[in-house]
Amino acid sequence: MSDSTSPSKRRTLQMLLSAGGTALLAAIAYPVIAYLKPPKLSGQSVSSVGLGAVDEYAPASATLFRFGEKPGLLMRYQDGSFRAFSATCTHLDCTVQYREDMGIIWCACHNGKYDLEGRNIEGPPPKPLDEFTVIVKDGEVHVTES
Amino acid sequence: MELFTSLRGWLDERVDLEGLAALARKKTVPSHRHSIWYYFGGVTLFLFIIQVCSGILLLFYYRPGEDTAFESIRFLMSKVQFGWLMRSIHSWSANLMVLAAAIHMFSVFLTKAYRKPREITWVSGVLLFYLTLAFGFSGYLLPWNELAFFATKVGTDIAGSVPFVGGAMLELLRGGEQVTGATLSRFFGFHVALFPAIFTVLLAVHLIMVQRQGMSTPIGHEKSSEETPMPFFPNFVLRDVLLWLIVLNILAVLAVFFPWELGVKADPFAAAPAGITPEWYFLFMFQVLKLLPSHVLFLEGEVFGVLVFGIAMALWTVIPFFDRKSQRGQQGRFFTYVGIAVIVFILFFTILGWVML
Amino acid sequence: MKYLSLLFSGIMLCSFVGTAAAQDRQDECYACHASMEDDASQAFATDVHRNGGLTCASCHGGDASLDDMDEGMSSARGFKGVPAGKAISATCGGCHDDKERMGALGFDGTTGQLTALRNSAHSRGSGATASPLMECTHCHGAHGIRPARDPASRVSRRNVVALCSSCHDNPRYMQQYNPSLPTDQLAKYRTSVHGQRNARGDSRAAACPDCHMAHEIRPASAASSSVNAMNIPMTCGKCHGDAKYMEPYGIPTNQLALFRGSVHGKSLLEKRDVSAPSCNDCHGNHGAAPPNVESIGNVCGTCHALNAELFRASRHAVEFEKAGYPECETCHGNHDVRPATAELLALGAGSLCGSCHSTENAPEGFRAAKVMHVLLDSLRNTVALAERRIDDAEQKGMEIEDVRFSLRDARQARLQARTAVHAFSVEKFSEVLDPGLLIARQALIDAEAANDDYYFRRSGLAIATLIITVTVILLFLYIRRIEQQQRSRKQAVS
Fold it and tell me: What is the pLDDT of residue B337?
């Protein structure tokens, strides 16, 4: 165990020690990072919502509704037919609204405009609004994911 | 390498790194047969750091409030990855910290390390210890489970029996006359804001004093050059780290094999469950109060007990000013016997409380 | 009014009874009163007690052997006159409540009637004096008493119905004592099989005392009453379970035995759950009759409302009516209703659905039964498995309470699905069952995950501990090396 034999041994020891230290840090960091990742909430996702009686919606009107954690926009047209869109603007994360005066769906954040079929017609939105499927059954309106 | 050197130079110009390094090189730790006790301060500090880290992590998910506290902890333990680990670590580390701090304190007492010129270190240290207990007491309630609820009820009730100021203290602690959601809010405030703030200041004083004055050498060992003092860096620091790693290992095993249970949600209108006990470090006080006769002198037993404990704790804090002999650097047996008596008293009633559960 | 007059001429049995000498003596009281042709003596002529050797003095006191009226009816001779109030029944009870005495007189029949009467609803105190409502003579009369088996007796099966209803059929009268008690018992009884046979003179068909007891009559709410829900099966079974007794009627006598083994019988008699039906809940009590084929659904439907509703809207309702099958009974039986398990939907040989539905004949129903059976079974098994895995995980100390809680919904879905079977439509059934199956499957997945997590924790710990331990050892070696170097350097310097 004299000094002369140590340099290589010592280097090995130092290397091993730094490897151990790194592994140790990883062993601590891994649970911490996993811990910080918010858990997925099961059972919170919604695939269909009931929106009540057909009569509650006047022709040529639009209503915001909750689809799980996201907003939706239920359109009723002049002819009495229904369509539903995701009310999340495709540009950024704002919620769109129906503008009766302009006859369009409008996003207040950056003046994005969609026609009543949800197609992006003006402003920054890059694509049409996502559409839901509307089912009218026994006089009740149901909206499901398409 | 170049970058490292220049960064070092940049820092050196501003904070005098070289001075600090010189200080570290020069610093030594006395080496004698009582040296082992020096490590418990470091262990306590390590556990405190763990408490801070795990506490911050717990705060990411904990939601104080009567309707959310229990639920959020349950969510943490069942849904969040490693949530159970964080909570178990926090709880176990709290208990180990009390234990380490107690060992540290009594070892300092018995080696008379509190003597002049280290009175400030002792007083700040004892206050830190009391604060550690307060941390434990306030943190115990936060999961808002049945056992914690009733333990808090009993604990604050004892505070309420202090003469004259008891009633006001009770209301201050509980945020009302009863233990309710308001108490939970308060305890949360104490636990994560008020106590940490005070603790930090006291800890800073404590550590600065230790660094300024170095370790105390027990009376009778100063002159004995049987062993040369140990360099603080790297010898002592590496030993410290070694011990910390062992403690971390123990902590991990405890957390996995004995995960902290959550129990049932507190219901203020339910009857108290059987077997409510305080945390083990309050057990001896609880046991003594239980055993006191209903009247001592002209006082109620409980009031008497609380007064005696209060006075004893205050005296304990200022003990360096009474121990004249050690101030003069002379060995005295009296305070050694006092320390041993206190340890025996605490051990006896803790064991008694344990047995009589 | 006749009874009242009888009451005033009360009777008393006293110490003369049992002495052989008394029977030999002539009854001078009777001789004289009979010559006066008064009501009491005329009735007494056929009284069972006179035939048994009792005299007027046995009840009224005095000395019946003396022909001097004044002396025979003097208080010195123990004459008591007409007993009134409690004294009436005390007089009767002097013998009839004394087993030894009745035995000495050669009777081995029932004694203790007075005690029984005093324990009955009829002895409830009334008015300021709190005297009992009824005495022996109210039912038995005073001087023309005949044994109950004598058809002419007021308390024979033929007459007792009229006797009881003389009060109980009178709302005005009953109001004074128990306003909440119905007074339609007689009308209902006349519609029942018992009542109709009784009216035709069948002396074996049940009359009031057969169910309510003769003396110890208690309200149905009392646990010891013969007509308390819990005791009714035994009360009815006394006759209906007696093959010999029921022989002339040619009806089965196994109802009680079957009922005891049924889900209803077990709930009522073993679990003592009084919400479970007793005999009368289906058959009626005073109007006891078997429910008709078309009314069974209504009878069961009083409790199993949703099942009945679904059934009536189902295809089976139509088909069963065409075929003349009793609604619920066709599948569930009557007295021996078994707990409804998924096995009811089984299709094998001798099974329920399979007895009508097969792949050739009615394949649609066959398929429906199969699907429902499989789904119910799978839900039950999934829930049971999930529960086991949750237990496992909890035993390992995993926090899994919320998963256990979510299983409640699955269990509820299973209960609802069992009801939904009665619509006999796979679509409607699945609407109820599928969400439950989803929940149960998710719970199972979560429970498995918790169990896996346990092992993950252990192995994670093993890795972490290994890393820490190795680092500790390396650090230890490193420290030792450094200190060796320090020491050798110092030696070199010195």
Answer: 93
Amino acid at C34: A
Cβ atoms within 10 Å of B242's Cβ, excluding its own:
19
Give the residue ranges of DSSP H helices in A1-129.
Answer: 6-36
* Confidence at residue C327, expressed as pLDDT on a 0 to 100 scale: 83
Residue B230, H or E segment = strand B230-231
CA B137/CA B148 separation, integer angstroms: 9
Which among B237, B217, B46, B204 has a CA at the least distance from the CA of B118? B217
Task: Give the helix ranges, DSSP H, for C396-425.
Answer: 401-420
pLDDT for the residue C126: 56
How many A/C residue pairs have CB atoms within 8 Å?
37
Q: If you average pLDDT over residues B76-104, what whole number do you get?
A: 93
pLDDT at position B339? 93
b/e per residue C166-181 (b: at least 16 CB within 10 A): ebbbeeeebeeeeeee
Domain ranges of chain B: 35-217+228-355
Three-state DSSP state, C348: coil
**Which is nearest to A19 in space by CA: C315, C478, B121, B102?**
C478
* C486 interface with A at CB cutoff 8 Å: no
* Per-residue pLDDT at C459: 92
Domain A48-145 is of which CATH architecture? Answer: 3-layer Sandwich (2.102)
Regions in chain C scoring below 50 on pLDDT: 1-24, 128
Lowest mean pLDDT among A48-57, A113-122, B279-288, C120-129: C120-129
Strands (DSSP E) contained in chain A are 48-53, 61-67, 70-76, 82-86, 97-99, 104-107, 112-114, 120-122, 131-137, 140-145
Phi, psi (rounded to 5 degrees) for A136? -105, 115
User: What is the phi/psi pair of residue C230, to 5°?
Assistant: -70, -25
Are B300 and B294 a contacting pair, CB within 8 Å?
A: yes
pLDDT of amino acid B341: 95
Query: What pLDDT sits at residue C412?
Result: 87
How would DSSP label each residue in C180-230? TS-S-HHHHHHHSHHHHHHHTT-TTS--HHHHH-SS----TTSTT-TTSTT
Is the CB of residue C359 less than 8 Å away from at least one CB of chain A? no
Q: What confidence score (pLDDT) does residue C18 get?
A: 39
**A1 contacts in C (CB within 8 Å)?**
484
Other C-beta atoms lying within 10 Å of the C-beta of residue C248: 9
User: Which chains share 3+ C-beta pairs under 8 angstroms with A?
Assistant: B, C
Mode of pairing for the β-strands spanning A97-99 and A104-107: antiparallel
Torsion-angle region of residue B31: left (phi > 0), alpha (psi -120 to 50) or beta?
beta
Q: Which helix (H) or strand (E) holds C7?
A: helix C2-8
Q: Which residues of A touch C (CB under 8 A)?
A: 1-3, 6, 10, 13-14, 16-17, 20-21, 23-24, 27, 31, 42-43
Instruction: Return d(Cα C113, Cα C115) in angstroms, integer.
Output: 5
Mean pLDDT is highest, among A10-14, B101-105, B297-301, C7-11, for B101-105
How many CB atoms within 10 Å of residue A34? 14
Q: Which CATH class is domain B35-217+228-355?
A: mainly alpha
The Cβ of residue B94 has, within 10 Å, a number of other Cβ atoms equal to: 24
Residue C20: per-residue pLDDT:
35
Query: What angle separates helix B83-110 from helix A6-36, to the nearest 10 degrees?
Result: 120
Q: Tell me the nearest-neighbour CA distance from C191 into chain A, angstroms.
A: 48
> What pLDDT is stored for residue C1 in this prediction?
41
List the subunits that have 3+ CB pairs under 8 angstroms with C.
Answer: A, B
